[in-house]
Amino acid sequence: MNVYKANRCAKYFLDSGKEEKMSNIVPKLAVKLIILALVTIVIINVSVLGGECSQDLNAQFTGQSDSTVVNYIIQEGDTLYAIAMSYQLPVRELMRANNLADSLIKPGQVLILPEKPAKEGYLSRGDISREELMLLARLIYAEARGESFEGQVAVGAVILNRLASPHFPKTIHEVIYQKNSRVYQFSPVGDGSINLEPNERAVQAAVQALQGKDPTGGALFFYNPEISRDQWIRTLPVMTRIGNHVFATSL
Description:
Blueprint: H1 3-15, H2 22-66, E1 70-73, H3 80-86, H4 91-97, E2 110-113, H5 130-144, H6 149-164, H7 172-176, E3 179-180, E4 183-184, H8 187-191, H9 200-210, E5 221-223, E6 238-242, E7 245-248
Antiparallel strand pairs: 1-2, 3-4, 5-7, 6-7
Helix pairs in contact: 5-6, 5-9, 6-9
């Protein structure tokens, strides 16, 4: 409002006989303008802060969406050790991620798989599938469930030593199911005990063997001298004896 218009307004009010004077109107207008300005400032600040908060929340959700949480539903027959080896995770890391006090798990239970597995604990024998791990554990259980843990690891090591040898097949499955003159290399395959469910100890023994532990020193054969009727195997150079098994190498 310029001076001219202000004077006209003042003259109008005075001439009309109103009791309000210009001196009374100006303070009221000033108060209204101040209130309007304050309200405008508050609205602007709320909008800005709201936008910033929205941006912060979006950033948080974006960050969360970038890191995918992987879950695994436990199946019948699963063990914590088999799952850990299948996903190349240290067992203790898997237990820590799921707040497990021990390795006991149940079918239907959901496990959180750590996003970035620790570098330690990877299989030194190469990438082995969960199926191969469990097959190795079943052979160990069938052949050496009455033996010490070292004896069970030793049986697993023989399978892996054959895997590394140019004279044997190149997969765990082929090594275990290999036949010579229609006779299986390992009696549990022939009598069906290879299908027995391995216990956790046998799975751990398979894991140890897969990680490179070999109590036999490189043996390619093993047998129980009290049971075996194979005369040829008795001619092989003996490397060590663990429990009831004799471990030998080729001539």
